[in-house]
Amino acid sequence: MATSQPATLDERLLGPVTNVADFIWGGTWDGAAVIPFPPLAIILLGAGLWFMIGLRAYPITNLGAAVKGLFAGRKSKGAGEISPFAALSTALSGQVGTGNLAGVATAIALGGPGAIFWMWITALFGMALAFAEGALAIRYRETTSEGTYRGGPMSYIMMGLGPKWTWLAIFFCIGTLISGLVTGNAIQANAVADGLNELFGIEEWLGGLIVAILVFIVIIGGIKSIGNVAEKVVPFMAATYIVMAIIAILLNIQDIPETFSRIFGGAFNAQSASGGFVGAAVILAIRAGVARGLFSNEAGQGSTPIAHAVAQTDDPQFQGRMAMLGTFIDTIVICTMTALVILTVEGDFTHAGSAVKHAWQADLDGFAVTSGAFAAAFPFEIGAIPLGTLVASVALLLFVFTTLLTWSYYGERAITFIYDRIPGSNLKGEKVLHMAWRVLWCVGIFVGASRESDLIWRMGDIANAVMVVPNLLALVLLSGVVFALARGDKTAGKNYTADTPEEPEEY
């Protein structure tokens, strides 16, 4: 009589972790509704609505000015470490990753086509939150004794709210470290290892090792090195992916009306089963759209202002527009392109042995859905690999690689902030800590490359929430400052600063 294998640690953890993630984002436990609304989705959308109203729809009315500033942002117009455009590219390199390819497919699998509508709504309100984050990142930022600039939520909490809120800043930093190691590292490493395995047949552990070495080569140079790579890679890879997606959609233009009907219909009505999709209630569409929207664009999470804080500008409003443009590009443009390809492209797909029209209805999962849709649009092969698969896989590899670079810096800033609260902390100690973190980060890439993806995705939802809550609280408390910055008052708000013998020099 055969004996069953004991459950692995990942298998034992999956159930409890899934319940916590489902409660945070969907209000359910063991698949049953505990509360009638998704808690964090309501908090996130509520905060976004507050800022959209307080900013008088600034992100919508000033979108044109933000696009115009995109080209002006290549020139430095103030103190900082990298150009405003490089800061946006760095932030985008952290935003654009697996969420834009695998995450969109996961959102559709969980919440149906209607989830895409709620992803758009999250992005729209997220643009208001992103403006707030980018503007505050410039208004309140630190300088070291060497004159280096840095900042983020931990800085605008300390300098804008005062020392009594130190606990909130530390809580945010702990959340950043957890989220960095899970969503910024393990999920990305897992995706890049899968991509290398699919394309070249490289074992996952070896793929993880190769990527870890490449990442270390870049991050050893700090934020300037990361910004330099991001400024060159991100615009090219994003433009190429968007062009290929548009061509794929145009080749299947006859299905566009049905696609939009599914998106808008599913946003407000229960969605029926279709092929491999088992159907979803409206609450699942909201949960999936908001959770995956946040995972993709990070608006309100507090990560991107860490990158925007080092921009060479003294105008909070200008960098706020750069930040909101990042959310627009990430979700409204890139995620939408992915969603339309998945939902529109017709191909030779099957579910349980029966033919289905689209990749999202087939027996596919995660990135394979996106890759399959692109392969159906561009089936001719290059070296036995369909062009569409090659495009999607290379895009994923580049997106993920730059995400790994940027999130390493986010984690570095978080761990440095905690260290700086220790009496006697100094610049030399910071540099030692930076190096130790960079080594740990690359070890994490190697380990994460072969982990089970289901558990990591669920842990990522929880980790994101640990960052969102303290950052949103800080944003709401500083909302009056944000509204004044949007009106052009560059010095709005109180300054809680004092000379200290430790780093940084402000508090």
Helix/strand order: HEEHHHHHHEEHHHHHHHHEEHEEHHHH
N/C terminus separation: 68 Å
In spatial order, strands of the major sheet run 1-2
> DSSP helix count?
20
Residues in helices, as a percent range: 55-70%
Q: What structural category arises from helix and sheet content?
A: mainly alpha
Mean pLDDT: 86
Contiguous runs where pLDDT drops below 50 for at least 5 residues: none
Largest sheet: 2 strands, antiparallel
Strand content: under 5%
Assembly level: single chain
Cα gyration radius (Å): 22 Å
Envelope shape:
globular
Number of strands: 8
Characterize the structure shown.
The chain is mainly alpha-helical. It contains 20 helices and 8 strands. It has helices at 9-26, 39-54, 58-61, 63-72, 84-95, 98-111, 114-139, 153-161, 166-200, 204-219, 222-251, 256-268, 282-297, 304-308, 316-344, 367-377, 387-420, 427-448, 453-477, 479-486; strands at 28-29, 32-33, 141-143, 149-151, 346-351, 354-358, 381-382, 385-386. The radius of gyration is 22 Å and the shape is globular. The strands form 4 sheets. A two-stranded antiparallel ribbon has the order 1-2. Strands 3-4 form a two-stranded antiparallel ribbon. A two-stranded antiparallel sheet has the order 5-6. It holds the Pfam family Na_Ala_symp. The chain crosses the membrane at residues 33-53, 85-110, 165-185, 205-226, 233-251, 263-286, 322-345, 390-411, 432-450, 462-486.
